[in-house]
Design brief:
This protein has about 220 residues and is of the alpha+beta class. Helices cover about 25% and strands about 25% of the residues. The chain is built from five helices and eight strands. Strand 2 and strand 3 form a beta hairpin.
Length: about 220
């Protein structure tokens, strides 16, 4: 959705960021998102801002503020970011104290500005291993992977192979359900490191790093 400055209100999506150092995975589908945002703090205060890349701007705020609890975002037309930010400030400062120094106490116009906030699923990446979520039921495979997965099933015991990878993911990756495919993925029958006598059945990739690969030795040894 792209909001327009002519609209009477704002529709914001809220994410819990208490355990997050970055929101890049949350906004990956919008390439970091160009839009408006509201930071929420533990003391009930807020900060309203704008950016052509909200995910990158969030990193700067994370280094500055140690009491961030949530962020609310909405996509916005780039040419209208200034005007949209001022109107959002006018709306938010009627409900709580805001930490912005500039643009505060400006009128929001003659009409009331409504702000709708929708809760969204956040990624949980806590330092405490006991607090993180575990892997749930397998999700839908990305388009184009069925052929290789079915080929892998014909080669051997896919259920056992999946179980081994699942245990590895549970022990090494926080919140695996919500971080795939942004932080990690599994490749079936990758073309890398193929050689006579053996082949890779599957590779787990975390970012650009191969952290686990399973090899099938096809020769007599």
């Amino acid at each position: 959705m792209t909001a327009d400055i002519a609209l009477p209100g704002f529709e914001l999506t809220r994410y819990d960021v208490q355990h997050l150092g970055t929101i890049r995975p949350l906004l990956a589908l919008s390439n970091g998102m160009c839009g408006l945002y509201v930071l929420r703090f533990a003391d009930g205060a807020a900060y309203v801002g704008q950016s052509v890349d909200i995910a990158r701007r969030f990193l700067e705020h994370r280094r500055r503020f140690d009491d961030l609890v949530a962020v609310e975002v909405t996509p916005w037309v780039r040419d209208d970011l200034d005007a949209g930010e001022q109107r959002l400030i006018a709306a938010i400062e009627t409900e709580c104290a805001i930490r912005n120094i500039l643009h505060t106490d400006r009128p929001g116009g003659d009409a009331e500005i409504s702000v709708a906030i929708y809760e969204a699923q956040s990624i949980v990446l806590p330092w405490d291993r006991a607090a993180r979520t575990r892997a749930g039921a397998p999700g839908a495979r990305p388009p184009g992977t069925d052929r290789r997965v079915e080929q892998l099933r014909r080669i051997g015991d896919l259920d056992t192979l999946s179980a081994i990878i699942g245990i590895y993911l549970d022990e090494t990756i926080p919140d695996p359900n919500n971080t795939v495919p942004y932080l990690w993925n599994v490749t079936a029958l990758p073309s890398t490191a193929q050689a006579r006598g053996h082949r890779r059945l599957a590779t787990v990739n975390c970012g650009n790093l191969e952290t686990l690969y399973i090899t099938d030795h096809t020769d007599e040894k």
